[in-house]
Structure formats: structure tokens, C-alpha cells
Fold each of these.
Amino acid sequence: MTLQDLARSVDEFIGDDAGSVKGRETALEGLFVHRQTKPSAFEATVYHPVICLNLQGRKQVSIGDRSVVFGAGQSLIVSHDVPVMARVTEASPQSPYLAIIVALDIAIIRSLCDEVGKPVLEDRKPSTLTANATDSRLVDALARYLALTRDPVEAKVMGPLILREIHFRLLTASHGGMLRQLMQRDSHASRISRAIGRIRTDFRVPLAVASLAEEASMSPSSFHEHFRQLTGTTPLQYQKDLRLMEARRLLTADGASVSSAAYEVGYESATQFSREYSRKFGTPPRNDVRRPDIVAGRRSDRVATL
């Protein structure tokens, strides 16, 4: 299947919709499709490990001082949970931004280690976010995976096999360097990945960076260096970003008050929360509080926007 054929399949799968942004989760776990008909402003969000194949349009993703722009035929590989600023830069009703997204399973990547052996491709400085041209075999595998949504029985039998093939294609891709590092359980990439998991689970409680470094079998300075290299930020700033983004969700989706959102995500001072929120999002948190009638209309419309 060509890229254009897959773009048409995604557009048809999403169907008619009056909104400018439409994301849809498929019956296959971890498979999403996305369409957007106009450019957007930068939005702060957390990306999870995924492969995002851009079928049409263009998108920009920034992490720390690094920025990745990828267009049609290119795919973005995200290897770790990372806070980013993202925006669609090229989209229109006639030629919308279209993408197919598959969540990555690190367990599948590691299960391929014995079969793949030592990676043939080596990267001196692999990145957590990397975009490059997509091999036609990977495009074909993603197209076959999306096609499984038409037949539940075929999806049950063939889904795990094609998903495994997708992970294999990514491991051998030119921009799959960080995934190749994750194959090794004791690599710096794997250690930082485990630390990120701890922070995400306990982001509401005070962060003990020294304890995280010890668990990762690193000195505090080495831990900071590798953490920043992978995420574009420090452990404390990473935790702060998680808190602020969760608070924004509470304000905009659940209609929480400013003070309740602040305390819910771990802040002890609503004043400090408001100051840091304004610095990150460019607007006071009170401006993002939604009325109950708007909240009720939005609860069922939360979609993946990668």
C-alpha cells in the first residue's frame, strides 16, 4: 500500500466530522489515527513511547532546546515519556494533517533482543525524539495493522504478529537508535526510563533525586546528565511539568477550582502554583477554568493528538 492509499484509509476511518481536530482510538489497543484541518499553536503535553507516521501535512515537536519537524512520509519515534511542546504547522480542510500512531511496547522490543542480536546500526548520540524517512516495509506493516480493524477475528490472530513486526522494523530503522539502546536492560536509556516511571507514578510527592540516582546505579551528577540528555530537562523540572499539565487537565476538563487543582497535584501554595502555571502556559490558571456546561460537553471528546 502506498502512503497516499494509507492516508485515504485513515481519512475514511475517521469519517465526517465538523471539528478541526479529530482523533480516534481504534479497536486495536494502542492504535490511533488523527486528522487536523488547520495549524495549531504550541501545546504542552507528554508524549509516551510511540511511532507516529505522518501521512499528510507537517508537525513540529520541541523538547528542551531541540526541535524536530516532520512531514509526509516521515515518522517520529518517541522512546521515553517526555514533556514536549508540539504544534501542527501545515494543515488545511483540503489537505489536512493525517497521522497513524502506534504505542510502543518496550517488552516486545526486549523480547526481540535474542533474535536481532547486536544491532548492526549504531548511533553515537541517539535521541529520545527522532524523525526520518519511513521505510516502505514499515508503511506496509502499519497499513496491514490498520486494516485489521475491519475483522475482529483476524485482529485477534494476526494483530500480535504484525505488532511484533512493526517493533522489529523500528529496531532496524535508521532513526531507531534509542530503541536499540532500550533493548539492553542495563543501558543508561533503560535506567533513565525506569526513573521516569517512578517520577510519573509519584509526581505528587516531593522528589528525592539522590534516591532515584542511587536506584539507577549512577552518581547524582551522571544521573542529571543522562536524564537531561534524554528528556531535555532536569528531574525536578520534569516533575513540575507533569504537575502543571495534570493541573491544566483538571481545570479544563473537570472544572476544578484553582486551589483544588494546585493541592491535588502536590503544590502546597496556590500562589506559587499560579505563578508557575502562568510562566509555563502564558495565562493565569483562573483563565482556564471551564464552566460545568462546557465540561460536560468535553469529557467525551478527549483524544490523542500526536
Amino acid sequence: MDEQERHGAQELLAARFEAHRGQLRAVAYRMLGSLAEADDAVQEAWLRLSRADSDAVDNLGGWLTTVVGRVCLDMLRSRTARREDPLDDLVRLPDPVVSRADGVDPAQQVLIADAVGLALLVVLETLGPAERLAFVLHDMFAVPFDDIAPIVGRSPAATRQLASRARRRVQGAPTAPDVDLARQRAVVDAFLAAARGGDFDALLAVLDPDVVLRADRGAAGMGVSGSGRTRGARAVAARALTFRRFGRAARPALVNGTAGLVTMSAGRPFAVMGFTISGGRITEIDILADPDRLRTLDLDLDA
């Protein structure tokens, strides 16, 4: 094969890869909860494909999915090995996918298909790397256990058990929001109005009695009262009142496809707030206020 033929073959391979990029990024996002790391995993899959004998690959999409799964598993294991035991209530939230309130960009839609909200990603963060891989690949992307087993170094039966344990954890968590976006927005708007007005009773009216608020302020928030978890309607309502001045600069947005807010300070994003709403009340609030991570997100909400 001469140079021109090699170039043409590489361009064809790149085009075939691009046809799968959206799904591969969705796999990696569910595995890692990080948009930047997901892009790194997809890029690594391309590098491995470009070095492989692609002519010998019968199912390119399946091959790439398992490659991305293997790359993500290595990244999760490395992340786990580096992590020190955190303070009990210290929180690190997954990256949110933020869109304008009037709709999700088609390029983002595949990332959050199948109701992949922040609450679900928080639950996935509690799984071990192998459990997370087995659950994500099998339950979310229908990869057979026979194909997952070599990645995790287990038998297909043992891999099935990994996914089963993960599934019980996921199904036991309140991750499914009300699906009606207009109803979600009405609840979030009521929460925002109550916070802006300092109306404690109105806040209690929109909060589930067992609501959980998770706040991630990053390294700057280590040991600060603004970081960590807050549980219970009265405690969360009290915390919400402290957001009063920032609430006045809040802008409606979609956060992983559900009604949320982006709050501003001095013209810059101060926090992204995602909500899980069930039965007309807020059951979970996830707040990303880490300035370093906010700078890496696409938060252009202008029409």
C-alpha cells in the first residue's frame, strides 16, 4: 500500500470512528462522571484503534465500546488508588451537563439519555470500579456478560453478579425524577422564589422531609461549612436561605436534562444546581460550586 492509499485508509477509519464517538463518550461519562476524562478515554480508544488491525474487527462499535470500558476501568482503579480516605461528609459531585432552559443540544442528548441525571451518577460513584463497569456496559449499553468478563478478569457468571449487586444499589436509591419538565420547573421556580424571599415555610413546602443537599466546593471548600451533605427539610431550608443573595442572579437551565439553575456572582458562574423532584417535592439538590471545575464546563446559556 502506497502513501496515498494509507492516507485514504486512515481517513476512512477516522470517519468510521467518528460515527461511534457520541456513544463512546456516553459510555465514558457514565463510567467516570467527568466530561474531560471521558474525552480522554475516547481519545485513547482512537489511538488504540489506529494501531490495531481494524480489518480483523467484525463489530467495530462493540470493539470500541469494550476498549473504552477497559480504559475507563483502568482510570477508575487509578483514581481509587490515589484517593485518600475523605472526611465523612466531604462530597465530590460528577460533572453536570448544562443546557439552556429551552432544550438540550443534540450533541449533549446522547450523554444524558435514559435519565442519566446527577443523582444517578452520584449513586454510580459509590460502586466499585468492576461493579460500575459491569452495570454500565450491560444494563445501559446491552453489552453481553461474555464480552465484559475478560475486561474485569472474571467469569461471565461472576460478572453477572457484579452487575446484579450494582443494580440493587441503583434501584434502592431515589434517582428517578418526575419526568414532566414543566412540573419540575414549577417546583424549582417555587424553591427559588422562596429562597429569594427568605420564606422558610415556603421552602419547607417544596422540600421532601428527607431531602438531601450535596455541595461540592472543591479544594477551596475543604472543611468549610458550605461543603458536604445536609439532610432533612428544615436543615436544607436553612442552608437555602444562605443562598439568598446569589439566588437573585440565578438563571434557569437544564442540568442533565432536568430543571436546574446556574447562579452567578460578579458576572461569572458561581454554582450549578441540579434538582431531583419526586411527587412534586425536591428530594435531592446537587450543587457544584468548585470554581476550578466550573471554568471547564460549557455554561454558555445565551440564546
